[in-house]
Amino acid sequence: QVQLVESGGGSVQAGGSLKLSCAASAYTYRMGWFRQAPGKEREGVASIDTRTNYADSVKGRFTISKDNAKNTLYLQMNSLKPEDTAMYYCAADPFPRGWAVGRELQDSVYNYWGQGTQVTVSS
User: Fold this and answer.
1) Is the pLDDT at 16 greater than 90, yes or no?
2) Where are the alpha helices (DSSP H) in 1-115?
3) Whole-angstrom Cα distance, residue 20 to residue 8?
4) Which is nearest to 4 in space by CA: 64, 60, 71?
5) 18-28 pLDDT, tens per residue?
6) Residues 101-113: what's their mean pLDDT?
7) What is the mean pLDDT of the chain?
8) 3-state helix, strand and coil shares in percent for the chain, rounded to the nearest 5
9) What is the mean pLDDT of residues 74-91?
């Protein structure tokens, strides 16, 4: 069992920045950030294992990173837009699995989820 605790959400004006953190209770091979806006489906934002993957909507603005020594995942979000407003979730997949390659932004890959942290971007 892996426990995930997100932090760092908040309210910011368009063009601003936020950095999300996710503390994991143990090492996990693959971690990702997902988000869900009201009335919309959850979508993958970014993932990291031996490489990083980003949704097209955040490429060039968001950066995912991981400190393995601290079992902590980060998401640096710059140039935020009102459409980035959502609940952001951290997710973890403990083990490398071949079938997950190419599916890193699909929520079915991940076994463990945090409780979420709200990000609100005002125009």
Assistant:
1) yes
2) none
3) 4
4) 71
5) 999 999 999 99
6) 95
7) 96
8) 5, 50, 45
9) 98
Contact 8, 117 (CB under 8 A): yes
User: Under a CB-based contact definition with an 8 Å cutoff, are residues 75 and 46 in contact?
Assistant: yes
Residue pair 28/2 in contact (Cβ under 8 Å)? The answer is yes
- Calpha distance 82→68 (Å, rounded): 32
Two tokens, residue 21: 């953190």
Element (H, E) at 63: strand 62-67
**Residue-by-residue DSSP string for 84-123:** G-EEEEEEEE-S--GGGTT-TTSGGG-SEE---EEEEEE-
Nearest to 90 by CA among 44, 53, 57, 49: 44
Structure tokens at 104: 């890193």
